[in-house]
Amino acid sequence: MKLNLISGSLIVAAATVAAHPARTNQSEYEYIVVGSGAGGGTVASELARKGHSVFLIEAGGDQGLHPEQQVPGLSFASWGVYEGNSWNFYINHYRNQTQARRDSKYVYRLTDGSTYYGLDPPPGAEPLGTLYPRGATLGGSTQVNALNWAKPSDNDWDWIANYTSDESWGAEAMEKYSIALENCLYCAANDTDRRRGFIYSNRNNVTYVTGRPNVAQFMSDAALEVENITIRDNNHLTELLQRDIQSKEYSYTEGIYQLVISMNETRRRSGSRNHIIDTINAGFPLTISPFSLATRVLFNKDGDDVVAHGVEYLKGEALYAGDSRYDPAQSGELKTVTATREVIVAGGAINTPQILKLSGIGPREELENLGIEVIVDSPTVGKYLQDHPEGVVRMNSSVPLGGDPMDNCRPDLGTEDPCLIQWNTTGTGPYGEGAAPLLMRYRTSTSENEDPDVWIWGFGGLDVRGFYPGAATPPPAPRTYSFSMLRTQTLGDEAIGAVTLRSANPRDVPNVDFDWFPGEAGDKELTALVETSDLLYRIFDRATEPVAPMTRVQPAEGVQDIRQNMMDESYGHHAGCSCRMGTGGVQTHCIDPQLRVNGVKGLRVVDASAFPRILSAFPQYPIYMLGLKAADMISAAASNSSRSY
Ligand SMILES: Cc1cc2nc3c(=O)[nH]c(=O)nc-3n(C[C@H](O)[C@H](O)[C@H](O)COP(=O)(O)OP(=O)(O)OC[C@H]3O[C@@H](n4cnc5c(N)ncnc54)[C@H](O)[C@@H]3O)c2cc1C
Ligand SMILES: *[C@@H]1O[C@H](CO)[C@@H](O)[C@H](O)[C@H]1NC(C)=O
Ligand SMILES: *[C@@H]1O[C@H](CO)[C@@H](O)[C@H](O)[C@H]1NC(C)=O
Ligand SMILES: *[C@@H]1O[C@H](CO)[C@@H](O)[C@H](O)[C@H]1NC(C)=O
Ligand SMILES: *[C@@H]1O[C@H](CO)[C@@H](O)[C@H](O)[C@H]1NC(C)=O
Ligand SMILES: *[C@@H]1O[C@H](CO)[C@@H](O)[C@H](O)[C@H]1NC(C)=O
Ligand SMILES: *[C@@H]1O[C@H](CO)[C@@H](O)[C@H](O)[C@H]1NC(C)=O
Ligand SMILES: *[C@@H]1O[C@H](CO)[C@@H](O)[C@H](O)[C@H]1NC(C)=O
Ligand SMILES: *[C@@H]1O[C@H](CO)[C@@H](O)[C@H](O)[C@H]1NC(C)=O
Ligand SMILES: *[C@@H]1O[C@H](CO)[C@@H](O)[C@H](O)[C@H]1NC(C)=O
Ligand SMILES: *[C@@H]1O[C@H](CO)[C@@H](O)[C@H](O)[C@H]1NC(C)=O
Question: Whole-model pTM?
Fold first, then answer.
């Protein structure tokens, strides 16, 4: 095994990337990783911790110590309010534009350059699609997400093991990665298997639910509808809410719970960014190249083999068209870097297929039409794109719900904000609270096994309905309950979504078409959303004064066809599966179960794209686990040969 002897690679030890760029001009590393999110950040850190030299290419910079990324209570703002954190894509939920534009969040560009979203665009408006943000910063989407933390069901991993005929993806074999990942701060100190990892998990202060009578009453009504349990008093409600949804006992049980959130003791976001910085600070040979947009993978011929040997990238800030600061005139500096072992692409479910296609790996016709030289005709790259379509139910109460802990905050991150001061100095208060305080698990008639197949989460007093321009600063909605719901048992081979190139320009965004709810499998997803809406309506029907009578906001009063409304108004942000693993080779799968890109050597994909079906309600947990497994597989392969393929 080749140890970390490349000169200069051990010198790197920077507290923050922007302030201290890597003090080396080295241009050769064992591994190059593109993208520092849940997948890329993890595999890069773990390979470095195993002694390998790693060069991590990230389009964005590091803002991990800034409150805009650290404050859990403002996570909704992290992707959309501050520049340099994320990229905005405009996607189509359906290729059928009549259906796609039934989304009230569908965005148009107006002739004066501004945007409009809604159902009545003025004449001449150019249709863009529905807003779909992705993190573009050190740590990727884990630095802008809502911190919700959910271990997948064993059945989900076993499904992949069955699909790939590879037991190493089964729940039993994957458990060691969960142990290596999780550091559960609310678990007992002697629960050692859950207190070892590098991502901290924590829970909201339950008094923010139980201390609000109208909200506590809703959760009590929910306990009765979902579990047939009559809540006796606040202590009883507290006890039920604090059952650990991540434990074996409760993760398979319908009921009311608290969401778990990826944040640490002082209630700062815990994500892939901290793991990267900790890895560098501990002296492992990881070098970050921030503000670097990978444009393509470079290949060599080795006999009959085509071997990935490096990456070409543009150095510069905001070079991608998804960036709100994008300026086509700023073209950056073209650079290359060489990998002596492997290149790992981890740009996320939209960018990974784009990078592969720009590198010549993709459907022949699509590449040739754009003048891209075909390295491998790989028909499924970008295909089978999936998501969790999240249905929405919003209800208005007759009175403000009251007791909102955010009421006294001034969420502008200014020095006058009492909530910011409290969070900063004591690690407590409303800013230390994660996104969705109200959680239910529910099993619909469509569940393919014994698992509750649906997650329902929501808010009392915050109006959440998906992504649209301005959604990062939701207006106060003191009377509104808003709930999102999704089915975890997503599509597999039935998925027909795709990421396709718009142009051969690596700075351009691709087309993203989800084509939700296809065929019989899609029909089940829709049925699950409709049944879950019915559950929520049964809970709201129990409301008494002063909140009653309740009025329907979404689906609106009088909407008869709930199913159509779910098709129109659902939103998503868990894209995956666009370079899915499986057996059968290049005709049917983008990568094999070792995550190696079919048709070439020395190239892997380690991010949400790799799954043949999205795992869990909240995908970050399993993507981190995938990154840990990938580091083991890649390092084991390295010990066999001077090059690992
Ligand atoms: C607003 C929002 C809320 C979410 N909420 C939750 C939640 O509560 N819980 C949960 O589990 N999941 C949530 N998710 C989803 C979760 O964060 C993602 O599924 C996960 O981070 C994906 O991991 P990844 O490694 O595939 O990609 P990402 O984490 O997206 O990382 C990809 C990285 O690659 C970089 N990159 C892309 N292309 C290039 C290129 N060409 N050159 C250089 N760098 C490149 C990007 O800048 C980015 O940093 C949310 C996502 C969003 C956007
Ligand atoms: C790296 O290269 C830059 C310019 O290319 C130069 O200014 C710098 O001194 C070099 N650093 C080292 C450590 O060689
Ligand atoms: C497109 O969507 C509309 C609205 O849902 C539907 O009425 C129409 O049948 C669809 N067209 C096709 C070709 O499926
Ligand atoms: C396992 O895979 C086979 C073949 O794809 C499929 O027929 C079977 O239903 C799967 N079993 C489970 C439990 O998913
Ligand atoms: C942890 O300690 C508690 C009580 O102190 C005990 O009941 C429990 O069994 C212990 N758990 C483990 C995993 O040792
Ligand atoms: C939870 O919030 C209450 C106020 O609602 C406060 O008294 C208590 O100290 C908080 N607990 C923790 C652990 O932060
Ligand atoms: C609900 O619980 C009550 C008693 O607590 C019981 O009588 C009833 O049968 C239960 N209903 C269902 C559907 O389980
Ligand atoms: C919590 O996270 C912050 C910000 O990343 C970090 O500075 C701090 O050291 C962490 N605290 C602990 C106890 O890990
Ligand atoms: C948090 O407190 C530290 C130490 O007092 C201070 O330097 C920093 O500016 C504060 N940050 C915010 C966002 O208030
Ligand atoms: C819900 O209530 C708010 C007042 O809090 C009001 O502004 C809004 O119009 C109501 N929405 C509906 C659909 O009734
Ligand atoms: C290493 O090589 C041996 C013998 O060729 C092979 O059986 C094994 O699968 C290889 N291991 C990896 C991780 O590639």
Answer: 0.94
